[in-house]
Amino acid sequence: MASRAFTFLLALLPAVASAYPNTHPVLAWSSRSSKALSSVAASDAAKTGSHAIAEALYNHNDICEHDAVIVVEHAGLHASDLRSLSPSCHTSKALSGAPSKLQLAYVESDSRFANPFVDLAGVLSRRCGSRAVSHSPSFDELALDADQGKHVVSISLPPLEDGETGSSRKSAMASHESWLSSELAKIEEVFSNCLVIYSGSPGVSLHARQSSSSSTFDSVQADASPKGGILKRYQLLTPGLILVLLVVLFILIPIIFVGVSALSSIQSPLSNEIPKGFSAEEKKTQ
Q1: Residue ranges per domain, the chain?
Q2: pTM value?
Q3: Helix, strand and coil in the chain, % to nearest 5
Q4: 3-state SS class at 62
Q5: pLDDT tens-digit map of 69-111
Q6: Residue 231: how many CA atoms within 13 Å on its side-chain side?
């Protein structure tokens, strides 16, 4: 039984290892009931890659009913970053109270697109006759006017570094979410019928982040840069490694111990001891 369990867990290792790389979360919610969002959430597209989800959502007949479609891109975002947010933050409250929503923790990235939700935003604005607006923390205050018609707002948040972990990453994520919450609140004051799409994208290296244009979050991330040993700079205990350690400690080592104990308890039926009553002289005379 133990050997079967060990074989089964070993077979799961490739699946666990491949469940996390090249994936990112996708969240979407609407302030009013959205047929487009509900349809995509219940369809097979939600089980595929990010490009298929974006196409299914943007091509839906009712997507243009929203006064504003807000596309938020957050490079390097992981599902664990969203779990670290406070339940009282704007994102958590918006998801819990949204009449229509989509929550996907691990969506496979498409190598053809950096972020299909952002790349196809221009197509969506032309299809709906909406005004396309770009925004980020490095830009001036976002100016919106409902009299100008429908809007497609693309928001780019500062990237989260791939090697950044621990309290510094959590602090940076909280700062990004706080700024995003205030901007979403301003947009929702202008447009009552909003659809928000919040997605991650492949992370960037430290060099790429430093070479990008400065933003209001640069000083925050500089102050929160990881200091200390290797455990604060790198994530050593990955899910795959933790599973391997558990298999070795609780299955492989006990099996080896039981096998060695069984082998050491085996006794040979032959013995070199001379039996009682044996006489070499009598043996010769026979």
Answers
A1: 1-20+238-259, 22-203+218-233
A2: 0.65
A3: 50, 15, 35
A4: coil
A5: 999 999 989 888 888 888 888 888 888 889 999 999 888 887 7
A6: 1
